[in-house]
Amino acid sequence: MRLNEILDHLTVIQLTGDFFANEITGICYNSAKVTKDSIFVAVKGYKTDGHLYALDAYSKGAAAIVVEYLYSIPDEIFRRSGQAKIVVADTRKALASLSAAYYGFPSRKLRLYGVTGTKGKTTTTFFIKKVLEKAGHKTGLIGTIANMIGDETIPTELTTPESVELNALFARMVAEGCTAAVMEASSHSLSLKRTHGLDFDGAIFTNLSSEHRDFHETMDDYASAKKILFDGLKTGAPAVYNIDDEFGCFISKDTEGRKISFGKLGGNYRLENISFDFSGTSFTIDHGGVKTDLRTNLVGEFNAFNAAAAYTLMVESGYDKDLVAEAIAETPQVDGRFELIKKGEKKVLIDYAHSPGALEQVLISINSLAGESPVYTVVGCGGNRDKTKRPVMGKIASEMSAKAVITSDNPRDEDPEEIIREVVGGIEKDNFIVEVDREEAIKKAILESPENAIILVAGKGHETYQIVKGVKSHFSDREVAEKYLNEIRY
Asked: Residue 153's CB: how many other CB atoms inside 10 A?
């Protein structure tokens, strides 16, 4: 594809230079990755601004430099260089549009479904992937745990990749025979326009609770970011939302999609008779008087909601309700999501709960199953992230557990002990201990708790690393829990 062809898909304010360059070799937003005849798009990042590197990209032979600021790079150098300067109103939107065009608009070649919300995105996407596969689609998945093309797993560090990587991944899915895909749409990615221009065939809003307050100043800002997914839906696409959540109606109100609600308190698809134990969860969906019994291996009322969201979207997308129910029943345990490990009577649950709302929901489920068993919670808060949640997390862990073990959780560049002091600041009861070293914290919770204890290890879930003082090293809550459970002798 030549530059003049790709520019047909971009709204341009000003053009300077040569627009009939050689074949474009790629789309870049990092000047270090610029190759000859690629397009460099200058975007504002967290730590720096791509406009500062426009001249560097030019010197490396980029066919075009895309900028928002008219004077970020002089017009004069493009007069006879064979290169082009392109000024647009929004370089992030331009990056998404150029990426989609460069890779041949791959999202249009897939049945693509998006899931947004604070909690439940990962689990819901795995339910949907299983349904699509049972219906005969080779299916791609993009999310927190991993990106997948069919059964192939591709490691990921971002819930939703940047638009270039996102479109490249969709193109690879198409090339490898995928006919459908499902993705988590984080509030960051929606705000930063990574999903701009994607052709979604349906979307889900799971719920909203306080999270990412380092990025979103208010809950209204956070909700507005989530709303972007629904605002971009095409006419008639299923727009599935949790009507029990106070933000559900707000997020769905302006969509051109077909609004469909689910919930326990009401909605088009109503959840009834939710029950669960450590083997799984059962519930009934009432849709217009027709009742369907559903069962999942995943545990907790929140997983009934995740399964109901997936069921609603897939049925409204035209899939047979019995096939959907069977697929939900067959969906395996999702790594790090209420994942049970046990020895004798002692149970350890590994869960990704790293926000107040998620931690509370998990502990509600655990306490409802605990009976006479004491609940121990190992929890911390990540560094370089929302500080407002730290005392709230401490308070929830203490109030809803027999004992809380406050520890580190990816302190990154912050002082681990200072983070822990902020977490402890919210605790009002005298039922906690502090252990900075996360492995020691898990060890103490397992070896020093009663024989019948239930230990929640919260915050990291599927993650297999720990970042301390900027150094990333291997660390798995599951591996550590298994190690010390195996030390128990009865």
From this structure: 12
Report how far apart the first and last C-alpha atoms of the chain are (Å, whole number).
68
What is the spatial distance between Cα 91 and Cα 193, in angstroms, rounded to a whole number?
A: 10
Q: Which tens digit of pLDDT belongs to each residue from 233-242?
A: 999 999 999 9
Residue 55 contacts residue 73 (beta carbons within 8 Å) = yes
User: How far lies 106's CA from each of 4, 29, 87, 315, in Å?
Assistant: 20, 20, 26, 24
The pairs formed by 145-151 with CB atoms below 8 angstroms and a separation of 24 or more are 145/334, 145/335, 145/336, 145/462, 149/173, 149/176, 149/178, 150/176, 150/177, 150/178
CB atoms within 10 A of CB 476: 17
DSSP 419-461: HHHHHHTT--SS-EEE-SSHHHHHHHHHHSS-TT-EEEEES-T
Q: Positive or negative CA dihedral for 186, 190, 191, 193?
A: positive
Q: What is the pTM of this model?
A: 0.90
Cα(351)–Cα(401) distance, integer angstroms: 15
Q: What is the pLDDT of residues 162-174, one digit of tens each?
A: 999 999 999 999 9
